[in-house]
Amino acid sequence: MPSALETLVKILKLERDQGGKDSAVIGGLQKFTESWQTQAREQARRPLHHILIDEIVDSVQGYEGLETREERVEIVVYLLDRIMNRVPPPQKYKDKIPHWEEQMETKEDSPPDDAPPRRDNRPAHSDRRDARPPRSSRSRGLDDKFDDENTSWDEDYTGGESSLELDVKPLPTLARPPRIPRPDRTLDEEREILAELQSSVTQVKGIGGKLAGLLEQLDIYTVGDMLENFPRDYQNYTELKCIRDLEPNEVTTVIGTVTRANVVVGKGGRKDLVVDVDDGSGATLSVRFFSQYYLSSKLRSGKQIVLSGKITIYRTQLQMANPEWEYLDVENLHTIGIVPVYRMTKGLKPRLFRNTMKNVSDEWETKMPDPIPQTVLDRTELANLGWAVKQAHFPDGWDHLEHARKRVIFDDLLMLQLAILSNRREWQSAGGQALDVTDDFLESFITTVFPYELTGAQQRAIADIRRDVSQPIPMNRLIQGDVGAGKTAVSVVAMAMALANGKQAALMAPTSILAEQHYRGISETFQKMDSEQPPVIALLTGSLSTSERQSIYRGIADGSIDIVIGTHALIQEGVDFHDLAIAVIDEQHRFGVNQRGSLRGKGHNPHLLVMTATPIPRTLALTIHADLNLTVIDEKPPGRQPVDTKVIDPIARERLNGFVEAQLEQGRQAFFVHPLVEESETIDTASAVEAFERLSKVYFRYRVCLLHGRMTPLEKDKIMAEFANHEYDVMVTTSVAEVGVDVPNASVIVIDGANRFGLAQLHQFRGRVGRGSHQSYCFLIPDESSDVSLSKIKAHRRGEVHETELSVQEKRLSAMEETNDGFRLAEMDWKLRGAGDLLGTRQSGRSSLHMVELMSPELVDLAQREARTLYEEDPDLELPEHQLLAERISILYDDSGDMS
Hints:
The protein is α/β, with parallel strands linked by helices.
């Protein structure tokens, strides 16, 4: 059975999560501890344990009669900190240690006559195996953290009984990867083996046409694709836990037998499958598969299964929702400690695919050519590639997996850096147009067209651009600034530098509505120029008629149009500039390297300025955009009011609706953002279509519109333009609102299902408001079915709950409340979720980075340093030790065409 301390910890955590209602246990916390201390003292092994029991009992005296729940939560959080040894015992309890030492010595001197023998004293030659899963190190960790001598309160407890007989060995540890000598092969031999990676999967033993067809659905065509198809998750068969030892909010793996499976009708007529799983430990686990009633034919009573997921608790019943699952393969319990979990497609059997991957990774472990020079591996202490690939698929231990992942990620980053640096050197070698920008012109233009003083960050950005364009080498600069930082003003000054030299400028935006917004704003700005004839500015989008488009084409070609603003239409055939000197790309993360190159190709190697409002940590930006010089605008113009952000409970919608209506009555507008377009059978969250129907009734006196990604571009542009013109008061939308038109009149944004978005995306949503002179508000509503605890978030803000006790979702939402600084949020997002969500769309073709969610700042920095070292030593990678690396880069990038 669980130790008394473990039982109490579960109750205290539940009481904390319920906000101090004193309902976590029948009769209340005080009454429970009065009976609990008897069992606890029987299990206590040291005086420190007894003084902790004394303090716990004393602390909950009068718990029920406390005036506020906040006082109760404060006591519960303190007791959890004491149990986990995060705070020392008060002196008055330390003074009681001699008393308990005396009591324990007396007890040891007088053992009862009927004391049972210790279970671990059975004969050493006994060949009986424990029919129970091994005790998880995590479940023993409660006592270990309290007890600095690693002694459990109940030293005899080794776990509950199970119907499964397990015999697994502890995982080995590995401080550093092994140094494996490279095979003695010539460069030609290495090339031949490298070419084998491009051969069809049908060359692999056991893969025929049918299986190859299934693999194609996973974008696996070659042997190399198979080896790069790394597991999306792993199941740890060496740290299994009994169901009765599980705790809420932990992610774990459980093995058990299905005892009951029922299809139940859920929200909106949704059919869910609810399965009860028993592992013989005296407790059962309820597993709910939302809208997956069809699994009832597979998860029948008596089936032994493996479940991996997050534990929650509902009405004292342990639960899992939509966990990963598969039938138990007993072989895994005896031969493999960590079992890979791969992406699957219908018809592909997990066990068959795993066995095939095992054979392939075994073969290539010693065969794999390693393109990274040995000197680099010696400096970085990274693993050999073949060993790393094998361990990434079938790791011998968690340390092995960590070393393997570091090598795979390092290779991706290093090759990306080298490919981009080579590409940059190639296009810069063609030379560009040096522009003469005088101090008099620059000062006169800025003071004339801008009715406000530019920030220091804007002035630094303009100085960087001026320095770049004055050189006969084409500028390639990234301007990174938060929403409202004034990037457009900087781009206007850059385009004016081209006009001052009698040349043309262009700006490309991702959507028609954004292009039209730039056209209006930039036209108004240039009208203020101190010039007899203002520049001619044209708008080029896909919605123009043929005659209108041809007229603009002629103006661009003959130079009568000075500035053209448009969408992708700027890089279509037929657009030829007379003398393009500066090209600007807005929201650059919406465009790939190819599209940037196409715009640059429209002129004679023009200077290129790209802008983004998506903050990316500097180290990561310097890697992903190695071909761009980076300027960060980290200030906002004075007068910008921060958006007031709050996380609210789903049950508070009625009060929220009233607040929004009050804003609408003042003439303001509001956004409502949802993660889905329509109701999903597998995701339990509100959809935009459902919300539109509901909110149209709530705000029946106002004009409500719907915007989502399934609309055509023309439909989306029309809705956005009408909303911007205040033809609608409320917009219900999906993530398409992340980057959009400027609506200064919008003062409220409500993000439903906020727990489903990353920090960077939430911040982008929030940037839709706060653009005018009105105080603006952002409300974050987590799903009702999520495990987000608002009481924990509030307690964390008060300093009563440590950050480590918050889930990732809770940390994310709490961060949104704490700051409006996009760069700070980007750094936090990298730590919480990895780099994947910060990179936006794929920028480098089929060689998309692996395991981006695991990139660390340290590894990115390491790859940067090594790439620069190699590039400075041998930019063309012509040395014999670099030639295999050059060929690998060529396969990854040149063939894809995305780096050209």
